[in-house]
Amino acid sequence: MATQIERFDQLDLSSGLLKSLEEIGYETPSPIQAACIPPLMDGRDILGQAQTGTGKTAAFALPLLENLDLSDLRPQVLVLTPTRELAIQVAEAFQSYARHLPGFHVLPIYGGQSIFLQLRPLQRGVHVVIGTPGRVMDHIERGSLLLEHLRTLVLDEADEMLRMGFIDDVEWILEHTPSSRQTALFSATMPDPIRRVAHKHLRDPLEVKIKSATSTVEAIRQRYWQVSGLHKLDVLTRILEVENEFEAAIIFVRTKTATVELAEKLEARGYGAAALHGDMTQPLRERVIEQLKEGSLDIVVATDVAARGIDVSRITHVINYDIPYDTESYVHRIGRTGRAGRTGNAILFVSPREMRMLKAIEKATKQKIEPLVLPTLEAVENRRITQFKQQVLDVINTEGLEFFGEVVAQIEQEQNISAHEIAAALVCMVQKERPLQLVDKKAPKAEFAPEPREERKERFDKKQRTKGDFSQVKMVLYRLEVGRNQDASPKDIVGAIANEGGIESKYIGRIALYDDYSTVELPDGMPKEILMQLKKARVRQRPMNLSLAEQSGDWREEKPRKQKYEGRRDEQRPGADTRKTSDKKKFSDKKKFNKR
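Above: the chain's sequence. Below: its structure in token form.
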């Protein structure tokens, strides 16, 4: 493009979208966003080649939201995705960008969920539909998805749809949409079948090819920690305390507000930390960087834009406290360490729902990111004790202690107390701000730390997931306000608890399904943060409203029915889809329908 686009406000987006982007933490358009947003807003067809993790969802979502007629509740945008997970992710992105567009409605439709749960929102009206090809076909054939007023069709990850055998379905859907529609096709690769679809169904498309960053500094050790029950701040401080060769760090977050909040929290825990964000004046920004260089600051908490141009050789660690939105940002971030011939460390915090981005980063950088073993409290305690001992020795070797020795001698004589006891009392006084004893050896507590995926897979492969897993953890019974009448299944409940609460499956006990609620065994003494998160978590589009079973009324009156179809307990309950046989005849391949 002729003009270099460095800010979203250069893209003629409405104030509502710009406000959403600022709140989310987007600062600079990625290459594919800068290349695709203007032509899509102008109605051009796009043929885009870009990897996952380049920011392509925003590249098509933002211009399509800009062009919506919010007064018209008939589907105006249809996005086809290869998997249900991606459909949900794209729908959430649309909802997030449109938070300041009043009356906006988006609906993900996919197989594995009762089709009847999707009919009512379609009847009420939606602006944007995100769906897998099979389920979109089902709704078109039923007449529940009407596309006469469709303005734009997006094919996301077209090569994946080809690989999964959906390309014929995609062509069928294309033929059932208005010929006047705008079309955008995105694919990581462009095999011949995809190019044939593009040439047949796209009108004079603008071709956009974005190369992903494919190299990182080999001297950088890359690790990730999967966000679990422990608070991210607690994990961060543990890592900072135990990491070898730690000298200075840049911690990346998404928003300006988060830089200030996290820097203040780290300062309160005894770290020399400062925020660095785009609203700071240039003199103040330069002062922070100078303090980092000279050693009066050890940690800078920054956004991507604010960290541009930082070249400080003493930075040993880059910590992605918030995962970046695209792979290019990740490469730029970790390039702040491992400079001047030194080794560096990059640590990435990843929530269960962000594992897809982790894989995209590994693919783009062509490097494996190893799981980080979370330091135990014992390890932190031992490190603090070692450091304290060294501080004591340094004082003995460098300071004049005659006066203080006399004070200790006076206490010994006046109180008949040994120097050993006096020294222990002084240690107790000094360490109150940074306790040396962190673990109650008499009453150890289980921690809900994540288990690296490789170790978890190996353990499951060896069939070691037995009742013995729970021998060290007391389990209590909880009630969930969803049951069989809401089409809930054990798989749904386990998925919601694992994803939203970050609790490993080995800590999820027996599940019993009733008509309008369910019960599940979970570890006793879970942190309040996890309980609040689980209370808000949703199963089959309904809040779980998790509560202790004994506080939920006389729930024992109803006995759970015997589980049928034991071989299918991880699939949708067979009775959930109650369509008449005549309706099912519309589909030529029942197996294919179920797969959708």
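Residues 377-398 form the longest helix (22 residues).
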